[in-house]
Amino acid sequence: MKIGFYPGSFDPITFGHLDIVERGAKLFDKLYVAVSANPNKTTMFSAKERLDLVKEVVKDIKNVEVFQATKLTVEHCRDLHATHILRGLRAVTDYDYEFQLTNFNRQIASDIDTVFLMTEGKYSYLSSSSVRELALFGGDVSPFVPESVKIAIDKKIANR
Known about the structure:
Helix 2 links the parallel strand 2 and strand 3. The protein is built from six helices and five strands; from the N terminus they run E-H-E-H-E-H-E-H-E-H-H. 44% of the residues lie in helices and 18% in strands. The chain has a five-stranded parallel β-sheet with strand order 3-2-1-4-5, with helices on both faces. By secondary structure, it is of the alpha/beta class. It has a single domain, classed as HUPs (Rossmann fold).
């Protein structure tokens, strides 16, 4: 059984992330999506809110399971018997960071490979931070995120 592991902060999950999840689900028998807490990022949504949003967005993809990451990626991979880490690449600017992260993970767990998928071209410029910024300035985020995420963003902005 081929098991993949797709970690991310997903703040918020975008159509670019969803593109990677949908295509990754076709590559693996089981795909775990791990909602991570990155101490280097300031988030719009709490970890629980992000977890709930991701679960909602991927609920119809049968072989995908979403959970809150609490450990290093490679530790979760070992616990779940995942042999591959799934990562999305938007542009060459992502490559340097992903190259370093992949090699670091391989030093810790050489038996776990990383698989990269290029995000569909129409999402190559899209990032969660851009969506957050657009929302904070009153822009329409509906072309970039699923409807349930747009609603959550609108509520979050209204409550600020």
